[in-house]
Amino acid sequence: MATKTPPIGSTEAAAELGVSRSTVNRWADLGKLVPVFKGEGTRGARFFNRSDIDRLKRELESKRAA
């Protein structure tokens, strides 16, 4: 049985991706990243699946290498 990794917040996702937190939040607003959940309120924290962050990281690295 595979263990499920906990979701990561936008700050950690930004660090993993090498972008700012506002970029991660903008990508979420645009649908490029889909949060698994968002905290209450207009400034609620967003949390993402590790697999989605890893996928996007590979995409960004391949674009940077091109």
Q: Would you give an account of this structure?
A:
The protein has helices at 10-17, 21-30, 50-65, and strands at 8-9, 37-38, 46-48. It has a 3-stranded antiparallel sheet. The longest helix is centred in the last third of the chain and has 16 residues, at 50-65. A hairpin with a 7-residue loop joins strand 2 and strand 3 (46-48). The chain is mainly α. The chain is 52% helix and 11% strand. The protein has one domain (8-65): Multidrug-efflux Transporter Regulator, Chain: A, Domain 2 (Orthogonal Bundle). The protein is globular. It contains 3 helices and 3 strands; from the N terminus they run βααββα. Helix 1 crosses helix 2.
Question: Which overall shape is indicated by the principal axes computed on the Cα atoms?
Answer: globular
Give the percentage of residues in beta strands.
5-15%
Please give the radius of gyration in angstroms.
12 Å
Largest sheet, strands/sense/barrel? 3 strands, antiparallel
Low-confidence stretches: none
Question: Which CATH C-level class is it?
Answer: Mainly Alpha
Average predicted local confidence, pLDDT: 90
In spatial order, strands of the major sheet run: 1-3-2
Based on the structure given, which CATH architecture is correct? Orthogonal Bundle
What count of structural domains?
Answer: 1
Succession of helices and strands: EHHEEH
The share of residues in helices is 40-55%
Count, helices: 3
Compute the number of strand runs.
3
Task: Indicate the structural class.
Answer: mainly alpha
The end-to-end distance, rounded to whole angstroms, is 38 Å
CATH topology: Multidrug-efflux Transporter Regulator, Chain: A, Domain 2
